[in-house]
Amino acid sequence: MGLELYLDLLSQPCRAVYIFAKKNGIPFELHTVDLLKGQHLSDAFAQVNPLQKVPALRDGDFTLSESVAILLYLTRKYKVPDYWYPQDLQACARVDEYLAWQHKTLRRNCLRALWHKVMLPLFLREPVSPETLRATLAELDVNLKVLEDKFLQNKAFLAGPQISLADLVAITELMHPVGAGCQVFEGRPKLAAWRQGVEAAVGEALFQEAHEFILKAKDSQPADDTLKQKLLPKVLAMIQ
Q1: Contact 17, 70 (CB under 8 A)
Q2: Where are the alpha helices (DSSP H) in the chain?
Q3: What is the C-alpha to C-alpha distance for residues 10 and 172, in angstroms, rounded to an integer?
Q4: pLDDT single digits (tens) 143-171
Q5: Residue 128 CB neighbours (<10 A)
Q6: How far apart are CA 122 and CA 36, in angstroms?
Q7: Which pLDDT score, from 0 to 100, does residue 238 have?
Q8: 3-class secondary structure for 107-168?
Q9: What is the structure's pLDDT at 119?
Q10: Residue 6 backbone phi and psi in degrees, to 5
Q11: What residues contact 235, with CB distance under 8 A and at least 6 apart?
């Protein structure tokens, strides 16, 4: 049995894994795990990933969770161009630095922006408080400035002159608040130019395909009441 990827393109880490595999011609069988239907909580999926999260990978008898681990596994198993995860020690360290930073900062902010602005109102049938939304968007602004000033600076990409895993992870995160209607790139010309460069490096068609669902997030329909009762505590814990 070949490589299998368990993904839901609602998830930003899943989009990063999907784009990376497709862009590099890595053959895989796609298993869609619908998060809003609670399919990640099923006993069947727990056999693949006991953590009950996506993305997940199965390669024969080997299974793997966590998006960064999956991306690194794919770079090491398949002959992908060096720029994704450079052999040069310092260039590689720059990629590692971003991947270590983003998990509890930008990812959290982008996730909260989507859920506070769009998804929780769908689940709860009422908007979150204006104070909560303002605090969420203010925190996002702080980390967007860090992304631009500390990581991007005056470079074309986060780790140097070519795209890397850092850029792919970052852009899929930022498309979460974009899907919620946030003007993430407005007034940030360096960040806007970087986005254009990432899209061009990935390929516009693939980029749009991967983000088709998230860009329609505002039109999503929540799960039924029974499933919402099961999902909501996990969602709230995730975005605290």
Answers
A1: yes
A2: 12-23, 43-46, 67-77, 89-102, 106-114, 120-124, 130-146, 165-179, 189-202, 204-211, 225-239
A3: 10
A4: 999 999 999 999 999 999 999 999 999 99
A5: 15
A6: 11
A7: 55
A8: HHHHHHHHHHHHHHHHHHCCCCCHHHHHHHHHHHHHHHHHHHHHHHCCCCECCECCCCHHHH
A9: 82
A10: -105, 110
A11: 115, 119, 120, 123
Nearest Cα residue to 136 out of 114, 121, 103, 120: 114
More confident residue, 235 or 26: 26
- Residue 91: CB partners within 8 Å, gap ≥ 6? 159, 160, 164
- Write the single-letter amino acid at 92: C
The strand pair at 56-59 and 3-7 is best described as: antiparallel
SS3 state at 182: coil
The DSSP element (H or E) to which 5 belongs, if any, is: strand 3-7
Place of tokens 């088709």: 212
Has residue 239 got a pLDDT over 80? no
- Check residue 126 and give its pLDDT: 81
Q: What is the tens place of the pLDDT at every residue in 202-231?
A: 999 999 999 999 998 766 655 566 555 556
Domains of the chain: 3-80 (3.40.30.10), 84-239 (1.20.1050.10)
68 class by beta-carbon count within 10 Å (0-12 exposed, 13-18 middle, 19+ buried): middle
Q: What is the pLDDT of residue 230?
A: 59
Residue type, 8: D
Q: Is 219 buried (19+), middle (13-18) or exposed (0-12) by CB count in 10 A?
A: exposed
Average pLDDT over residues 168-190: 95
